[in-house]
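Notes, Module 5: Reading structure tokens.

Key idea: the token line is not a picture. It is a compressed description, and you learn to read it the same way you learned to read a sequence, by spotting repeated patterns. We will look at two proteins. The first is printed below with its tokens.
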Amino acid sequence: MKRLLPLEDFKVWLDDFLPQLKQHDFNIEVGLVSDRTDGHLVHLDGVNFSRAWNLYKIAEDLPEYNHLKPVANQHINYSLPSIFGDDYMGGHWLGSFAIYALNASKL
């Protein structure tokens, strides 16, 4: 929606759609992957990268949402090591999701 709406309209939409994001104590637990050789569970690493990417993008133009950056950092920090393993289940695709998240992080 951030790409489609003018910024002010996006803020209204975001506040209506996900009002909990405004809370400075907002947190969302990372998706825990208990077995990275499991082709289903490893998708949680992808969810973590996707969450981080989107949280960073929200905070990018809306300084009142800067408190989301540490939450995004938690998600990246948990899943980033998974892209360096030898396992095919996540190794062949997670890197692209990680790049989107890292580019949005401005790290």
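Here is the second protein, with the sequence above and the tokens below, as before.
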Amino acid sequence: MADGDYRPDWLSGYASKSLYRWEEHEAESQVFYTRRLGIVESLFDHDGTQHEGRADLNCNLKVELRSIKDAKAIREHISLAWSVLRHQHPLLSAKAVASTKHGNERAFVYRRPGSGKDIVRDGYPHVCYLEDHRKGVDAHDFYQHLMNSSRAIDPELALSKLFVLPYSSSKETSFTVNCVFVVAHQVCDGLTVHRWMSSFVDLLNLSDARLIERAASLASMSPVSSLPPAQEVLYHPVPGSVARQRWFWAIARILRHVKRPMPAAFQNPLNRSQPLQASNRFPTKYEVLSYDRTPALNNYAIAPTLDRRSTEKLVKLCRQAKISIGSGLFTLVALVMMQMEEERHPNIALEDRLPFHGSFPVNPRPFLAGEPTAGKEDSLMLGFGDGVILPFLPKDLSFDGRFRLLGRQAHRQLKQYQKRPRTAEEELSLGSRSPRQLLPSLYMATLERLQNWRSAQPGTYNLQGAYPVAVPLSPATCGISSVGDRTQIIAPGKYDVTHLSTDQDFVADFRDVSSAVRARNGEFLCGAASDREKTYFMISVDSCAVDRGKAKHFKEVIETILEPRDTKSKL
């Protein structure tokens, strides 16, 4: 749909380059760039602002350092790298505010730095060194408090913050530093945060002089090419006349109306029999956090890890079934959930068992217009897919057989969300699950979610009219999200920390990264990544809904389920 064509209000943002254009303006001798938040961004902005940081991403990056600098100089170097990162990826330093320029809608505001020194000064208020307040900090304990205290960032100041945990530096040996980043989810997804962490490690390996040069270079250049568009700008326009465009959207809405709803699924077997009615207030402990406001839900993260042998078994099973590793991870979580459901309710007959429903975020990047972003993913939020339905298989069947059968089904369903050559029949399909309907359906579903939350505000609308979308018969069992092989983005060994060369006074190498979000109601979101040797899960949990003991049992089961066992198949 080209800008300027007639369209109803609810379609004004679809493939619109004008509505979400970055606009430059001056105020008090400073240059600012602003643009409206896109629809997907607005959804996650609402999460954060109205629900005490819900969905904010909390990322713990572990790096190993070696330096001959003193403690103060090491700190200054880390702060300098952070300051440059914030303007190399501008939304890290942007803020989100109600903008009178955009009808009081929420908008990003990025201030163009006046100089390299301005970039350095700008970053310092948004990094916090915990050793200024206490000497010893347990990383896991701090992470738990970070997830359960007041929101760590103020979006009217910046959409990110860095906490550096205490470390013991030495000029004789290397040492580990934990850098904990908090980022508003409206500006990043899993792929983005991995790329930003990779950029941060690269910046740490520049000398102070090079970092200052980089800051000066960023300040001297126009930031326009680095300011990301709203994803809706990159949706493919609907071609043709106004009449054809109207016809397309009429069909798209009818297809949503006639689309069969997802079937009822068994609910998360890790859930409490009765959810807690209110979250527990964490005791005040860390001076760098505010405990004034308590999130509506208690949040925590569990981190199962598949060792090398289990990871090799997973890869082997995926190859045998001719499915992707992502489909295999999806299947693995489903099998563990089925086993735990069977343990919780052992007396249900197989024919009465409900299926597994795994929800997952949709990565729209492969379907967007413009240059491909593979290998250079930056700020872009994921959408919401229908999920995958897998039939219930009992644990007395062989594990390998269950994995192959369910893995192929998961792979087939997940393929619709992948960019690939399609047959003429697929391209011409007008079905509700046609590839051509992915972005229009994603746009409308996101808009409806946003409108439901804004229902008390004026200007809302019912885009389906007399043809409502069928409601799923039950919530999903759990959520699953995978970034795949993270070694394509970040991996240990890029920088040698065993010694310093004659021209080095500081070197840093990646060791590990894990990230979780503040959960939504009832959420059990399994994030996953692999480094070819191990497979790492980081699971975001609403502990008001999910029993901690059962979640711990889930961790134990998924870590051991691929270990050698009787392979005699009943399938």
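Summary for the second protein:
- The chain has a mean pLDDT of 89.
- The longest strand covers residues 506-517.
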